[in-house]
Design a protein that fits this description.
Blueprint: E1 19-23, H1 30-42, E2 47-49, H2 70-80, E3 84-87, H3 91-99, E4 104-107, H4 109-112, H5 115-125, E5 132-135, H6 142-154, E6 160-164, H7 182-190, E7 195-198, H8 200-204, H9 210-219, E8 224-228, H10 246-255, H11 266-306, H12 314-330, H13 335-357
Parallel strand pairs: 1-2, 1-8, 2-3, 3-4, 4-5, 5-6, 6-7, 7-8
The structure holds phosphoenolpyruvate and manganese (II) ion.
The site of manganese (II) ion (MN) has 4 residues, from loops.
């Protein structure tokens, strides 16, 4: 994929990191869009956002003002000389957005989850030169996210960036949507050219977490942030708890620590090189040990097979689980890591023994 990066989309976006997309969750009235967007621009927003059609979970919520809001956000863009972006979820939205001269479109999480809808949007955009921001699907499915990006790309759109807005879970805690940072990191590994914007607002769901999640995104080398801001968040018709006033947006930005991607200090580079060599060696040793463990697992598997014994003995597994978790925690690692680690090793052991049990090897042949 040859993806064109945001600074080459033809807008006057200063070459700074992070790129900041801000503005209200929803356009509510002309005055609110104007004040919110002008406020966000004053604090350093480089792209303005507002939702015109809102995908709401429950039917009686505010579902956006609809197309009467299009000229409001467009005027905010003209006054601030900034590009503006809105969410589109179907062909009608695309047509209206293009007709009003909206600069950038975004595909929301509830749309990127649905290949029919993404394809419909892609077809409506075939031959149109407009940038697209593609949010991750609501569920943690990287292939679906990549699939949405590919559908747009195949329709001829090459000004594409991704937005990471977290993944929904039943009873989310403490966040509204879990960040699962490994998924956007893997997206970047799979499509190295793609720029990724983090949307802390929809990850957090609450103002109190926004600073930390924004900082984490910068520390993980995200290219930008999409943060909802509203002139009067407490009165907002959608996502009231997570929106910031323009002043608070300014404070959040001021408090962000901007670290460099690579140090240019030769001492730092030499030291980090040596430490990374240590990590490489330790990883090889860990892998060799795990492979050795799996050889023993294989031996046990053969023995169980010869004796007609089942793969899983619950009391042995409980004993292993408890003792290894305790040891891992004693070694200063987290309980979550301890659980995931021992479960992962055990799953691979079971997989190996299952393979052995169902293989052609008969008792006589072994
Ligand atoms: C939004 O950005 O206002 C929005 C609806 O986001 P998401 O698609 O991430 O839920
Ligand atoms: Mn919102």
């Amino acid at each position: 994929m040859k993806i064109i990066q945001i600074h080459n989309w033809g807008f006057n976006i200063p070459n700074q990191r992070p790129i900041l997309i801000s503005g209200p969750c929803s356009a509510e009235n002309e005055e609110q869009v104007m004040q919110s967007c002008l406020g966000a621009a004053k604090q350093g927003a480089t792209i303005l956002r507002a939702g015109i059609w809102k995908p709401r979970t429950r039917p009686d919520s505010f579902e956006g003002v609809g197309d009467i809001g299009l000229p409001w956000i467009k005027t905010a863009g003209k006054l601030t000389k900034l590009p503006v972006t809105i969410e589109v979820a179907n062909t009608k939205h695309v047509e209206l957005a293009l007709k009003s001269g909206i600069d950038i479109l975004w595909i929301g999480a509830r749309t990127s989850v649905n290949p029919f809808m993404v394809q419909e949007i892609a077809e409506a955009l075939r031959g149109v030169d407009i940038p697209l921001l593609i949010k991750n699907p609501v569920n943690p499915d990287l292939e679906l996210w990549i699939g949405a990006i590919e559908r747009l790309y195949k329709a001829g759109i090459n000004k594409i960036a991704a937005i990471h807005r977290g993944f929904s879970v039943y009873k989310p805690k403490p966040y509204r949507n879990l960040p699962m940072w490994e998924i956007p990191i893997e997206l970047r590994r799979r499509i190295p050219d793609i720029e990724i914007i983090c949307d802390p607002s929809h990850i957090c769901g609450k103002r109190a977490f926004l600073q930390d999640i924004s900082q984490k995104a910068l520390d993980l080398e995200f290219d930008g942030l999409m943060i909802e801001s509203h002139i009067n968040p407490d009165q907002a018709l959608s996502d009231s708890a997570q929106q910031l006033t323009p002043d608070d947006l300014g404070i959040l930005l001021k408090n962000l620590i901007r670290r460099k991607p690579v140090g240019d200090n030769p001492n730092f580079l030499a030291n980090i090189e040596a430490l990374r060599l240590d990590i490489d060696n330790i990883d090889s040793e860990v892998l060799e040990l795990i492979a050795k463990r799996m050889e023993v697992v294989h031996e046990i598997g053969k023995y169980k097979k010869e004796n007609g014994v089942t793969i899983l003995q619950m009391n042995r597994w409980t004993e292993i689980f408890d003792s290894r978790v305790m040891k891992t925690i004693e070694a200063g690692l987290s309980k979550e890591f301890a659980h995931a680690f021992i479960q992962c090793i055990h799953n691979e052991s079971i997989r190996k023994q299952t393979e052995l049990m169902s293989s052609e090897l008969s008792v006589n042949k072994t």
